[in-house]
Amino acid sequence: MKKRVYIWIAASLAVITIFSACKKKDSTPEQFFTFEFATGTGYISGDVTMAIGQPFKVGIISTSSTDNTLTHLYITRTFQSKTDSVFDTTLNLTALNYDFDWVSRSEPGVETWNFMITESTGNSLQKNFSITTETTTGPINTYDQRILGAQQNPAGPAFASMSGTVYSLADAKANDASVDWLYYFGSTSFATITSPDDNDAIKVFTDGGTVEDPGPNALVTWSVRNATRFLTIITDTINWDAIQDDTELIALSEGAFETSLKTLEAGFYLAFITEAGKRGLIRINQISQEEDGTIDISVKVQQ
User: Fold this and answer.
1) Same structural domain for residues 271 and 149?
2) Which of 78, 95, 165, 171 keeps 20 to 30 A from 131, CA to CA?
3) Same domain, 146 and 247
4) What's the whole-number mean pLDDT along residues 118-124?
5) 240 lies in which domain range?
6) 169 and 108 in a common domain
7) Quick one: 109 and 144 in the same domain?
8) Rg (Cα) of the chain, in Å, rounded?
9) CATH number assigned to the domain comprising residue 96
């Protein structure tokens, strides 16, 4: 009887040993693909502290080390126990190398960003970092009574917010990298401020030609058409003269996403974020209607 017990124990130990050996050989996601953050100037790849409303860049680098493919990328941001989906897409790639441009929160606190890539075997890899945002104030520029002309007015339609310069269409093309918006008056859109990359603006600023056969300074011929984004501010509590730093500009411009704002009227306030990440506020002082009219604006913008 004892001999049989010893044989049973020995057999059990052999099974446990074999099972343990198999577990040690289990595959890990790293055997199938890699996932790293890009590093270098301008990239965020780990925990960091920055000002509220500050632009930042994240680079994702992932490569399949087998014949399988990367199938899913999912990105979330969590702030004060609330998680929002930032990016959620299916993939069919063997390699991914992509940069994302974002802006830190417009309020102080700690926000956790989580990144997950899944591969066709079902394995996934995750990385995360935290961004601590701090309230800081920065200097601003203020430009008063800048007059922009509509598309048939001799006054220039284009505006550069970093210098406060109003450009004619010809000068705007020569300085296209500086132009943040243009003004026109449409038959249905009426008074309109538009980003240079807006599709309707291309149809308006043809410099005497058409989209298919444009004039020499037409918007479609510009080398750079900056992607400024706008937001109409629905409030009557803005104290324009009291804005002496960028605190309120950052808060008001959060969520700006429109490429143009139409049917504008005197007294409106428009928030904006330039392609360079500068935030600001436009006050509409006066509008002279029609395609040969003008718009009088004041601007406050981060330096």
Assistant:
1) yes
2) 95
3) yes
4) 91
5) 140-302
6) no
7) no
8) 28
9) 2.60.40.10
Cα 225 to Cα 56, 129, 196, 278: the distances in Å are 21, 33, 5, 16
Weakest mean pLDDT among 12-26, 84-98, 100-114, 144-158: 12-26
Q: 125 and 82, same structural domain?
A: yes
Q: Which amino acid is at 13?
A: L
Asked whether residue 52 is assigned to any structural domain, the reply reads: yes
Residue after which a domain boundary falls, among 102, 134, 166:
134
Q: Which residue type does 114 have?
A: N
pLDDT band of residue 6 (cuts 50, 70, 90) is very low
- Rounded average pLDDT over 39-53: 91
Structure token digits, residue 4: 């049989």
Task: Let me know if 219 is exposed, middle or buried by CB neighbors in 10 A (0-12, 13-18, 19+).
Answer: buried
Q: What are the angstrom distances between the C-alpha of 96 and each of 36, 38, 59, 276?
A: 10, 12, 10, 26
Element (H, E) at 282: strand 279-287
Sheet arrangement for strand 190-194: 165-167, 158-160, 181-186, 190-194, 260-261
Within-domain flag for 56? yes
Distance CA(213)–CA(203), nearest Å, equals 11
Please count the structural domains in the chain: 2
The percentage of residues in the chain with a pLDDT greater than 70, rounded to a whole number, is: 90
Cβ-count burial 161-188 (b if 16+ within 10 Å, e if not):
beeebbbebebbbebbebbbbbbbbbee
pLDDT tens-place string over residues 195-254: 999 999 999 999 999 999 999 999 999 999 999 999 999 877 899 999 999 989 998 998
pTM of the model: 0.63
C-alpha–C-alpha distance, residues 170 and 181, integer Å: 15
**CA distances in angstroms from 100 to 41, 57, 60, 87, 216, listed in the order given:** 14, 6, 8, 10, 34
